[in-house]
Amino acid sequence: MNGLIQDVKFALRQLRKAPGFTITAILTLALGIGANAAIFTLVHAVLLKNLPVVDPKMLVRVGDNDECCINGGAAYKNDYTLFSYDLYTHLRDQIPEFEQLAAMQAGIGYGSLTTRRSNDSSLPKSLRSEMVSGNYFQVFGLTPYAGRLLTPADDVAGAPPGVVMSYQTWQRDYGLDPTVVGSTFLLNTNPVTVVGITPPGFYGDRMTDTPPDFYIPMAMEPQLGPAHPTTILHRSDRSWIYLIGRIKPGTELPSLQAKMGGVLRGFLAQLPTFQRKGMEQNLAQSHVVLVPAGAGIENMQQNTGKGLRLLFIVSALVLLIACANIANLVLVRGMARRAETSIRMALGAQRRRLIRQMLTESVLLSCLGGLAGLVVAYGGTRVLLNMAFPDATDLPIQATPSTVVLAFAFGLSLLTGLIFGIAPAWVTSHSEPAEALRGSNRTTQDRSGWLQRSLVILQAALSLVLLVGAGLMAKSLSNLEGQNFGVKTENRFVAHFSPENAAYKQNQLQSLYDRITQDLHALPGVERVSLSMYTPLEGNNWSEGVQFQGRAEPKVGDEMGASWLRASPEFFDIVGHHVLRGRGITEQDTATSTPIAVVNEAFVKKFFSNGKDPIGAHFGVSGMQSVGDFEIVGVVSDVKYNNVREHTRAMYFRPLLQMAHTKPEDDTRSMYASAIMLQTKGSIDDLESQVRRTLANIDPNLTVSRYDTFQGQIRGQFNQERLIARLTLMFGALALVLASVGLYGVTAYSVARRTPEIGVRMALGANRGSVIAMVLREALMQAGIGLAIGVPVTWICTRFVQSQLYGVAGHDLVVLGGAVLILAGAAFAAGLIPAQRAASTDPVQALRME
Amino acid sequence: MIELKNVERSYKTGHTETWVLRRVNLTIRPWEFITIMGPSGAGKSSLLNVLAMLDDQWKGEFDFDGEAVHRMNRKQRADLARRRIGMVFQSYHLLDDLTVAENIDLPLSYKDIPRAERQSLVADTLDRFQIVGKKDLYPHQLSGGQQQLVGIARAMIHTPALLLADEPTGNLQSKQAKEIMEMFRQLNEEGTTIVQVTHSEANAAYGTRIIELRDGWIYSDTAGEVNNTAAEVGQ
Lengths: 850, 235
Fold this sequence. Notes:
The complex is a heterodimer of chains A (850) and B (235).
Chain A: H1 2-17, H2 19-48, E1 59-62, E2 71-72, E3 79-80, H3 85-94, E4 98-105, E5 113-117, E6 125-127, E7 129-132, H4 136-140, E8 146-147, E9 162-165, H5 167-174, E10 184-187, E11 190-197, E12 214-217, H6 221-224, E13 238-239, E14 241-247, H7 253-268, H8 272-275, H9 280-285, E15 287-288, E16 290-292, H10 299-336, H11 338-346, H12 351-388, H13 403-429, H14 433-438, H15 449-482, E17 492-496, H16 509-521, E18 526-532, E19 543-545, E20 547-548, E21 561-567, H17 571-575, E22 579-582, E23 596-600, H18 601-607, E24 618-620, E25 630-636, E26 651-655, E27 675-680, H19 687-698, E28 706-709, H20 710-715, H21 719-753, H22 755-763, H23 768-801, H24 813-839, H25 843-849
Parallel strand pairs in A: 3-15, 7-12, 9-11, 21-26, 23-25
Antiparallel strand pairs in A: 1-14, 1-16, 2-13, 4-14, 5-6, 5-10, 8-11, 9-12, 10-11, 17-27, 17-28, 18-27, 19-21, 20-24, 22-25, 23-26, 24-25
Chain B: E1 2-13, E2 16-28, E3 33-37, H1 44-51, E4 59-64, E5 67-68, H2 74-84, E6 85-88, H3 100-109, H4 115-128, H5 144-156, E7 162-166, H6 174-189, E8 193-197, H7 201-204, E9 209-214, E10 217-221, H8 229-234
Parallel strand pairs in B: 3-8, 3-9, 6-7, 7-8
Antiparallel strand pairs in B: 1-2, 1-4, 4-5, 9-10
Helix pairs in contact in B: 3-4, 3-5, 5-6
């Protein structure tokens, strides 16, 4: 122990003696460890952390993908993740292996609730809610912070309407006011009682940047559900909930999974959808996959996991480069301290003791770097969170380092210290003491040379991998953002609202829409106004299978899906759809006129590939009896609405309030527009508040849940890609700088050591140019070997990011060539300074050194 | 061949200026074998560095075969030295990671000479100095005398008119030193002008003229003419 303390004291003294080296090393380490700790904070919070609930290991999710939000028909690949409420109760009652099986709403939207406290005179707010089964909190084993949590008794028809508020909402919007518990709130104009507050750390059943503000019993779905004003609570053909259960101890998951598959098929077999001809195979293959649910519903994990893992690897590589750099610095110091080492050895110090002393110094240095890294990590995490979740309200991820992050940073510091310390310690302790004591070394090479060069080569190779990765990501992002979406975004704005939350009845919608359109048109500078179910690239999509008049009934498995939306007349002009044939939607397309549809080019391509004229064709979405429901009156240009990485989907557009003749009850929910688009004549000051005021003047319950420019909304689609591209670019640049500094350091050291040799060469006739060329050749040779190793490694590594790229081949020669050139340029610059210094060597001085 | 007029050299350390060469006037004729002697710090090596054109911080006039070195820039001086002067060092200054043949080739590698011609010159030189058998060895595999022989071979490969040697036998045993001095005498007899710096009277005896320096002044010159310096030194 005494020896260790002595080592630490000596190490501190050594570090104090060389402030330049110490500061450089600590800064380099701080950047490396800080970047890693910041990324780890995200990785830990998103990918590794369990829900703050009791015994999360016993939680199991029924279903394994991220499907959302309300689906009809058979599940994708017959793998069930979304369930109807009736199927949920069926499974709950048939499977005793679960202590509790809870249901929760799949899609938690922005502003799904218009909320006002009943005794509060201020305007209502748009808040988020999640419908949950009565045993939801029991499954998680939670106890309330205040009041009580929901119980199964709350989740029955006719029970007094009671909801639970999240602690975050209570704190953020109501200042922890204890009178909130037990008070009445108006949710979508329905009076409910807040029965309790969730525990502070609980953020729901999934990681999200917008956790629910209210937990509402499923029994209230008819009033507050996602299909309001219609209800899907007891529609077995509508799947809209996720399931998480707590299994009984000793339950075997594989057998439970098989059993649940059987119960599922038994239920599905009763549904008309599965009694159709051709659905036998779907039924037979219908199954569920059970996955651990300690972390809850892992949709965000599935969506961001690949990106986060990639960033984690990239930041680890940067740290490795930083280690190589510091190893070089330590090595140079070690060489400079050879005489000291030799004296110690001559006085009887054992190699092991010397290595321990040097490692103590390295580990101490890395721990200091780790401490500074925590500051970098804190700042970095804040920046990362802002970049990754720009719209977050109550993101359950803290930038402040948690115990786990602190432990990670400390462990990483120790590891880093060992990595960069061990090789120099070994080399220095194995120098020849007699030679070192003599003070001069005739040879132009030394023992550490190969190690230093190897480290530079390693840095160059790794930097190439990172630079190419950054280049590919940047090019992919540029392709994604720069693609032709078919839209016009200049002076266009999008506001989201919810007439159903303001309790508008179907027969009131026409006058409401007229009033909104008219009042917004009256705002100075507003040129066009449209209402629609949703807008392009906001993450929403409605789709149906279509059947055409005069054609045979589609067989099971035929690809007949088309996305669709309802819109008002000016929608096409605002969005940027061009009417290519026929006409668009007009003021004459009213609730009472003949139901029409306008289709896009992709729709024509998909369903009229035989060259038939789509204008005048009829189709429907509710079976063959509905094929005459809509008449196609026009074709508009393609616009991407949903997946930016795929081709434009076939789409049809309908007027806001026309109702299908067949199954009109299925056609009413879609009449509730949720988006307003505005086109202005230029920029208008404070347009957002004017829009909010205009809607509030019509009805105070018409709240704006989201407002953005159309451009901003589209940009929001690429947040993750932008984050990854920016970070890989940043890490790539950092790697380049570190590698350049490393090469510079090694070359400068080599020049300093070779001064006598250079002097001899100059005395023998070497001119400035040949000395510069000689030094540069050596520097570029190392970079060249690094590139030669890096190119095939990069070639292999790019396979792993291929799935994240858009419009870029993993083996993009332009990016690879560019990265090689940048690295070669950086190596040239890094080598040039010491080369020039070498060329300025005074041969007389240099020879005197010998 | 060489004419130095009032050549002076000093070093500044802080506020003090230390003179290492004072008003040196010197004429060196072709075929001469000059020995520069003097105590440590007398300016012997400094004078040699001026003659080698390695140093360009001196003042005065320096003519080399009619060319005014004092009017040349650094590059022109380096070119002239590369063509006409060879250097032999006390500690040989062979590059340890180059073989004997590569070390000898080094001065040629800085000239625009075709590779084949260079190889032929190296082969001739190895032959001339009788070190063909050692051409693939590295310096650390040679004795001190052999290393200095390689150093002389390297200096002579481009047949310089002037060979400068700074304590060429300083690190050698007397037997090896004698061999090296015999080699110098032979080169001189073949027409090379030699200027050597040495402390050894025995080595000086190989030369045709001895110049003694003291405190930067030429104190004596066996050629006879020392312009008023002795008097000044005595002051």
